[in-house]
Every structure is written in C-alpha cells, then in structure tokens.
C-alpha cells in the first residue's frame, strides 16, 4: 500500500477519535476529498519541478504514534533556546508533552490546538480563523487540514504582548521505525498585539521522520509578529512547511527561516496583504552539505495600496546539496505604490552542488517599485587573499566570508540569544573555530 | 631580509613582471614608484603570495627562505604584511574580532597559546591610540562603510597590531587627506627599526616626505629601470615619468 492509500484509510480510523458533529469536521472532510483527488504532488507540477517526494512515498510511515514517549529535559535541553525564559509548547512524536511545556492563559492564550478545536470557549475564534488563510486547494495543505487535530494555538488579544517569546518544539523519538507528523498551528495577533515565536522540529534518532506542517498566522491592524523557523534537523528527517499569513493595516510580520539540517525541506511561505501600509519581511539563511535538499517557495500577494515586502534569502551549498528558491510576487491592479523587493544570493562551494533560483513577478499595477535580483557565485578570491594575508588560514577565511555573506539576514533577528545560537550553529555547520564567539 | 632575483610573473599568460631584482635589508625603507600599469601592485601581491599570479622565473626569499611554496597565510606567519590598496569589506566581523582572529592564528602557527584577553585589549588600545582611532570604530564591521581614509588607517592599525618583519604599503597614501596622511605615516615610522623593513609603493612623492625612504626604485614595464636615493623621488615629482620612459628606450 502506498502512502496515499495508507493516509486515506487512516482517515477513517482518525474519524473514530474526533467529534464528527463539530463544524471543523466538515472542513476536514472537504480537505480529504481534495487530497484524494490530487494525491501527492509530482515533478510534473510546475511548483514541484525540483523537489521530489517519491522516496518519501515509498516509506511505510506510522501515521498515528502508538504511545507517549518520555523524554528527560536534560537530554533535550540543547534543542531549546534555554538561555532565556520562554513559553513552550512541546510535542513528542506528535503528542503534547505537558511535562516539557509551559503554556499560559494569563491575558494571552498559549496552548494547544486540540483544546481550541474541542472546547466551547474557543469556538468563536475557530469559526473566524481556522483554515481561513490556508489553501483549500494545495494538496499537502489539505492533507494536513484533513488530519488537523493537534499543534500550537496562540491567541494574543488586542494591545497585549506575551511576557516572553514562545517556543514550539516537535521531537521525534524514533519509537516508530518511520513516523509521519502533521502539526497544525494557529497564531492570531489581534489589533496592536505583539508576539515572538520560535519553531523547531527535532528528530532524536536515525529513524525516518516526515513532517507535513501547516501554520496559519493572522496579524490584525498594527500587530507585530516575529516568527523564526530553526531547521537543523537530523539527516533522516524531511519537512514540508506550509505557512500562510494574513495581514491587516499597518501590521508587520517577519519570518526568518534558518535551514541547515534535514534531508529534504520544502518551505511554502505565503503572505497575503489585506490592508494598507503593511510590511512583510521574509528572510532566510540556508547552509547545506551532503545530499541535503532545501526548497524555498515564497509568495507575497499585494492586494492593497501602499504596502511593502522585503525578501532576502542567502544560500551556501556544498558537496552534493541542492537548493531551490522560487519567489513569486503578485501586485494587484489596485495595489498602487507597492514596494516589493526580492533578493536571492547563492554561493556554490562544490562543483556538484546545485541551485535553481527563479523570481516570478506578476504586476498589474503601474505605480510600483519592484526589484528582484538573484546571484549564483563562488567566494571572492580577492577577499580570501585579504584574509589569508593577515595570517588567517584558507579554511577559516572561507568560513569568515560565508559568515559575512549570511550576516545581513541575521541582523534583523530581534532575540539576541537566538541570534547568538544561530551564529553558533552556523560556525558548527561550517566546521570552524574562528577565534571569537561569532 | 628580502631578496628578489630575476622575478618574472604573469597573470593569464600576460607577462607583468619581467625580471625584477631587489634586495631589502633589515632597517631599510624602500620606495617603489612608477606609472600606472608598471607592475607595482603585482609585485606587492606576488611577494604576499596571491595565487592569481604565476611566477614563471626567478625567486623571492625572506631571510634566506624561498617563499615559492608558501601560502599567503604562511607568508603572513613569517612576518610579511601587505597593506591593501583596496581593502575588502567583511560585514558582521568587527575590527576587534578580526584582529583577534588574525593574531591568534599567527600565534597558533608559531605554536603559541591564544593571547590572553586582557593583553589583547591592552594591545588594541595602545595601537588604536597610536593611529588616533576612535573606540567606536573598533566595533564596526571590518571596512564596511569606511571612507577611503578610514580603510587606509585601519590597514596601518592592523600592521601595527601584527608587527610584521616586512611591511609592504600599496598606495597607502591614496584617499588620505593631509592630517590622516601624517597619522598614518607616524604609525608606519613607529614600526621602523633595525629589525624591520618597509616597502612603500606609491605614485607620488607626497607620502615620502613623511616616510623618508633610504632607496627609491622606479618600476617601468615590469622592470626596475632606475634606483637611487630619496632625491630620485623629488626628481620624478618634478619631471614626471616620461623622461624615465625615454631614457629606457634610449
């Protein structure tokens, strides 16, 4: 039985464990029909030309984890940003771990999707927001919607700011020979609210993991949302991350994606601007080696006048790694005075590494400023010579230059401890000690 | 200290240096002058070990050791320093951190431990005062957004930090106003002593009023066509390079 058939039959079992009368279940039923018709995307789909899920479909994944696994905090502490106090929503093999988590209802809700989808007090919010910006057509998103049950639920009311950043961490323990996870997150920042979120997926063994995640983010008027994705998973873990963001007037949403680990990673990051004077910021640093594959598909839809978007993705590709950047910008006819900027710069440090980069601009308004640029190059020999002539060996000089290349993306990280952590991961990924704390 | 014998160097089969002979002894300051495209910067790069240039013939030796097989960083560890005409910008790496890395890598190559932090800070303070460099400047990204003058001053600051045996200053005076020129020259002169040698590459005589050379060489079409004392620089300033070119033809 292939993975599609397995998922379809699993849906019947899934229905035994959820409230079929809840309105969300209608959404799920519609979604599974869409997935049943479309199945997994193939290389024939333009959007999946460079990323193949064929190998993933051959694996016999467990769709429902069998039992809760206990993890000791001291063993997994390093995967948390433990230098600062944070709220934590932690899942182990897809199951919520109250022992490792720190949720809150103190003025803001930082809790579980399973609670939001079942408890009456959340019904109003769920009715308004759940599955409202996520695609009802994109096949993997609908697959997630069909099985949506658990994940992070974050609701920040008007004028509120949580006391500390929120970490969402998914662990896979390897209790299953192969595990498929489908977390579903919902983040709502009401008018003038602020929130900072760090998300991480971490497999703790060599056993295969496939995560198909969907996150919906709603930023109301004047809201400010910072979302950081730390993708530094084991080399046997694959991730498809579908993130959908809806913004209203004057809101600012920043999404940083740091892709260093994993076997196959696909990021579908979609911004919809539904108001004026909105700012959308998409930044990424990708550093790959081995046979790793990362595919960034971004979409920014400018649907109202006077808005901005800023995209800056940097990639460093070694060994036989492959990268994809596909950045689509749509500017509707009424979205005059749009400023949309897109930058994708890549360095290939191996003859066998590949990058496919493609800007896609669909501009229907006439008074706009849109720019895009993509570069693929090698390290600057003059710069290397400069560093070497100061006594810095070529390997360390190379690392310093790569660090410098990725640096401007890090500048906008607004949690200093996270910035330090990312710098350390970069130094480790590059395999150097450059004589000072980066 | 430095001995260059019949040096021929090319880049992509284009011959640039066509038989350079030069001897620089410890304690000496040599100026190399010449028109654009005569090979001055190439000579500096070849001594510092830039791989783009291929040495076709001849040799460069430092204190009797042939440099041919040494990488740029190994040459730096042997005490060669090149002040760049166009220093490279390194965003995200502060001047201080860059110097820490450079100094500790050189120490590592000599089998020494990292320089203790307090000693490093003291050294940085001392040398930045010498070059009248503002504290804030040290925590800026290396060369990023620096003015031409700041870049050059920073080069000489690095030189003062690294205390090389042989310093080659490639067009260090370009982009400097008169005050900055004096500060930079003062920094260079502090390094002068019986143990060190300096090669000043320049287009104009101006810098040589502050860093007074023992010898002046004129480079033309990849060869040293004339050598003399500091008076030669004055003569060049007065007459330009054309008479040298004519003399060469004759």
User: What is the succession of H and E elements of chain A?
Assistant: HHHHEEEHHHEEEEEEEEEEEEEEEEEHHH
The order of strands across the largest sheet of chain A is 2-1-5-8-10-12-14-16-18-20
Number of helices of chain B: 9
What would the average pLDDT of chain B be, to the nearest integer? 91
Q: How many β strands of chain A by DSSP?
A: 20
Write a structural description:
The complex is a heterodimer of chains A (about 450) and B (about 250). With about 450 residues, chain A is an alpha/beta fold. Chain A has 2 domains: about 270 residues, no CATH class; about 60 residues, no CATH class. Chain A has 10 helices and 20 strands. In chain A, the strands form 2 sheets. Chain A has a 10-stranded mixed beta sheet, covered by helices on one side. In chain A, strands 3, 4, 6, 7, 9, 11, 13, 15, 17 and 19 form a 10-stranded mixed beta sheet that branches. In chain A, helix 2 packs antiparallel against helix 7 and helix 8 crosses helix 9. The mean pLDDT of chain A is about 95. By secondary structure, chain B is α/β, with parallel strands linked by helices. Chain B has one domain: P-loop containing nucleotide triphosphate hydrolases (Rossmann fold, 3-Layer(aba) Sandwich). Chain B has 9 helices and 12 strands. In chain B, the strands form 3 sheets. Chain B has a 6-stranded mixed beta sheet, sandwiched between helices. A 4-stranded antiparallel beta sheet of chain B has the order 2-1-4-5, with helices on one face. The model of chain B has no long low-confidence stretch (mean pLDDT about 90). The chains are: A alpha/beta (about 450), B alpha/beta (about 250). Chains A and B meet through helix 8 and helix 9 of A and helix 2, strand 6, strand 7 and helix 3 of B. Chain B: Pfam families: ABC_tran (PF00005). Chain B: This is Fe-S cluster assembly ATP-binding protein. Chain B: Keywords: ATP-binding, Nucleotide-binding. Chain B: GO terms for molecular function: ATP binding; ATP hydrolysis activity. Chain B: Belongs to the ABC transporter superfamily. Ycf16 family. Chain A: InterPro entries: Fe-S_cluster_assembly_SufBD, SUF_FeS_clus_asmbl_SufBD_core, SUF_FeS_clus_asmbl_SufBD_sf, SUF_FeS_clus_asmbl_SufD, SufBD_N.
């Amino acid at each position: 039985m292939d993975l599609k058939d397995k998922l379809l039959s699993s849906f019947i079992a899934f229905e035994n464990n959820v409230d079929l009368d809840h309105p969300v279940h209608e959404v799920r039923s519609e979604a599974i029909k869409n997935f049943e018709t479309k199945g997994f995307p193939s290389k024939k789909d333009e959007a999946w030309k460079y990323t193949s899920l064929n190998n993933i479909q051959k694996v016999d994944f467990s769709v429902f984890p069998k039992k809760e696994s206990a993890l000791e905090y001291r063993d997994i502490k390093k995967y948390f940003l433990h230098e600062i106090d944070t709220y934590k929503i932690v899942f182990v093999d897809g199951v919520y771990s109250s022992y490792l988590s720190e949720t809150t209802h103190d003025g803001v809700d930082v809790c579980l999707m399973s609670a939001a989808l079942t408890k009456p007090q959340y019904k109003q919010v769920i009715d308004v927001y759940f599955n409202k910006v996520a695609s009802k057509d994109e096949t993997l998103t609908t697959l997630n919607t069909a099985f949506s049950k658990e994940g992070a639920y974050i609701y920040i009311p008007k004028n509120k700011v949580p006391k500390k950043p929120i970490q969402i961490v998914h662990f896979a323990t390897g209790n299953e020979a192969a595990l498929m996870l489908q977390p579903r997150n919902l983040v709502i920042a009401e008018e003038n609210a602020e929130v900072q979120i760090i998300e991480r997926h971490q497999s703790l063994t060599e056993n295969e993991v496939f995560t198909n995640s969907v996150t919906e983010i709603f930023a109301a008027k004047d809201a400010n949302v910072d979302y950081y994705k730390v993708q530094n998973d084991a080399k046997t873990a694959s991730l498809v991350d579908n993130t959908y963001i809806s913004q209203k007037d004057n809101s600012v949403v920043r999404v940083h994606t740091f892709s260093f680990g994993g076997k196959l990673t696909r990021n579908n990051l979609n911004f919809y601007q539904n108001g004026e004077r909105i700012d959308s910021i998409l930044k990424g640093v990708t550093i790959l080696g081995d046979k790793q594959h990362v595919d960034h598909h971004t979409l920014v839809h400018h649907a109202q006048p006077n808005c901005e978007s800023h995209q800056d993705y940097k990639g460093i590709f070694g060994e036989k790694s492959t990268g994809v950047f596909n950045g689509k910008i749509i500017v509707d006819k009424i979205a005059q005075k749009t400023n949309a900027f897109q930058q994708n710069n890549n360095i290939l440090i191996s003859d066998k590494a590949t990058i496919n980069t493609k800007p896609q601009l669909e501009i229907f308004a006439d008074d706009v400023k849109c720019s895009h640029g993509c570069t693929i190059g090698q390290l600057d020999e003059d710069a290397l010579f400069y560093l070497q002539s100061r006594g810095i060996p070529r390997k360390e000089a190379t690392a310093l230059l790569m660090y410098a290349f990725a640096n401007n993306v890090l500048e906008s990280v607004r949690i200093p401890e996270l910035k330090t952590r990312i710098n350390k991961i970069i130094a480790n990924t590059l395999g150097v000690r450059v004589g000072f704390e980066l | 200290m430095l001995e260059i014998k019949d040096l021929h160097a090319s880049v992509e089969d284009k011959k640039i240096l066509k038989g350079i002979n030069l001897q620089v002894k410890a304690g000496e300051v040599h100026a190399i002058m010449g028109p654009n495209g005569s090979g001055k910067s190439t000579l500096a790069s070849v001594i510092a070990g830039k791989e783009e240039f291929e040495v076709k013939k001849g040799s460069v030796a430092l204190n009797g050791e042939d440099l041919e097989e040494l990488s740029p960083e190994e040459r730096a560890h042997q005490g060669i320093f090149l002040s760049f005409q166009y220093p490279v910008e390194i965003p995200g790496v502060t001047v201080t951190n860059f110097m820490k890395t450079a100094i500790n890598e050189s120490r590592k190559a000599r089998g020494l431990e990292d320089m203790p932090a307090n000693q490093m800070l003291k050294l940085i303070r001392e040398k930045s005062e010498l070059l009248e460099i503002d504290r804030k400047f040290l925590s800026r990204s290396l060369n990023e957004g620096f003015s031409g003058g700041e870049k050059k001053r920073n080069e000489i600051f690095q030189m003062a930090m690294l205390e090389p045996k042989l310093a080659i200053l490639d067009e260090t005076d370009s982009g400097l106003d008169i005050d900055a020129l004096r500060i930079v020259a003062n920094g260079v002169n502090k390094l002068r002593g019986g143990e060190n040698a300096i090669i000043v590459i320049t287009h104009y005589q101006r810098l040589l009023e502050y860093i007074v050379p023992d010898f002046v060489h004129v480079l033309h079409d990849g060869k040293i066509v004339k050598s003399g004392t500091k008076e030669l620089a004055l003569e060049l300033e007065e007459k330009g390079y054309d008479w040298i070119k004519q003399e060469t033809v004759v």
